[in-house]
What we know:
41% of the residues lie in helices and 13% in strands. The protein contains 3 helices and 3 strands. α2 (11-26) packs across α3. It starts with a helix and ends with a strand.
Amino acid sequence: HKGAFAKAFDEYHRRKIACSIVDAVATSVPQGRFISLDVHSGLWYDLGYARAVGITLEALMDETGMTRNHGMVAHPCGVRPANVPRTLVSRAA
């Protein structure tokens, strides 16, 4: 996907590539998820679709050497958007 992402014409096409990666992870067998540890509670939570796409975009931009000023805003310090509900996945080991 790196090559296609690097050649993508605009944000719409780059986001579409990132969405296809997140969809592939979510529909794989066994099902994959994007999760993060809440250090305060010790619980893992699902980041949700929008944040997973954001993380995938950041990773693809890093891998292709793109700067982050293409109209896509990365969430600072890994803070998740307030509209993404926390879903308990498991307790930290």
